[in-house]
Design brief:
single chain; about 250 residues; Immunoglobulin-like; 6-stranded mixed beta sheet; 1 helix; about 35% strand; elongated; Neocarzinostatin-like
Length: about 250
């Protein structure tokens, strides 16, 4: 319980005072940061991070941030994926074993996203696309020295190009739409192509009792009975292109 209280306090301070950001040049780095992969990244890639040169008794936060700049704070526009309360999206590492933190001397891991979504105070949702040069790993002082920018360090991240296919282009309703039990949708092979010209595979394995798919080149989706139908659209990637895995959910009545 005490650990959770400390994390909540840390998060509150972080939000009110603002978070840091980093310069895109490694020359400006004040902390040694080694990451096992920073280029040709794909969505959901888990990277290994090793830190060095963090002063005794201090700690840092490690986040994936969008267009971060050294000295920037949340109050001045810093935008990062996740938070301390969202497991796996942010790291708190210290040299003094503060309760709830990880050791700054350990090998640390962080899952990266090719894009992430934030919701503001007005409940407006915005998606940030990382692409080849929009995101970085940002290392900065924790809540015990939040205004200290001496340890600010940025490591640029480069993601592979992504691909997509819109539901409406396949003749499907938008995600969350409704279908009548007994109805079906036919999708021709010519439509089952992503924005990067990769073939789209359609499946409904997890909810096949509610909806099913038949066909290989052309596909028919049959909505069989009332319930929640999940349709998965997938396309292979390559060394120069990220794979696509997209799930659409429909209500069948």
């Amino acid at each position: 319980m005490k650990s959770k209280s400390i994390l909540r306090t840390a998060l509150a301070i972080l939000v009110s005072a603002g978070a840091f950001s980093l310069v895109a040049s490694p020359v400006s780095a004040a902390v040694g940061v080694t990451i096992d992969q920073t280029t040709k990244l794909v969505d959901l890639r888990v990277v290994s991070i090793k830190l060095s040169s963090i002063p005794a008794g201090q700690g840092v936060y490690i986040s994936q941030c969008y267009k971060a700049q050294k000295g920037q704070r949340t109050a001045s526009g810093l935008t990062c994926n996740g938070s301390l309360t969202e497991q796996g999206t942010m790291i708190w590492a210290t040299t003094d074993a503060s309760r709830g933190s990880q050791s700054a001397n350990d090998n640390l891991t962080l899952m990266l996203r090719s894009s992430f979504t934030k919701v503001d105070a007005n409940k407006v949702s915005t998606t940030y696309e990382c692409g080849a040069d929009n995101c970085s790993i940002f290392v900065y002082r924790d809540h015990r020295g939040l205004t200290d920018t001496a340890l600010d360090t940025v490591v640029p991240l480069k993601f592979l190009p992504t691909q997509d296919v819109a539901a409406v282009s396949l003749g499907l309703k938008k995600d969350g739409g409704k279908y009548v039990a007994g109805s079906s949708v036919s999708i021709s092979a010519s439509k089952l192509i992503t924005s990067k010209s990769q073939r789209v595979v359609v499946s409904s394995t997890e909810t096949r009792s509610i909806c099913s798919t038949t066909g290989t080149s052309s596909v028919v989706i049959s909505f069989k009975k009332a319930g929640i139908c999940s349709i998965t659209l997938s396309a292979e990637g390559s060394k120069n292109l990220d794979q696509m895995i997209k799930t659409l959910t429909y209500i069948v009545k």
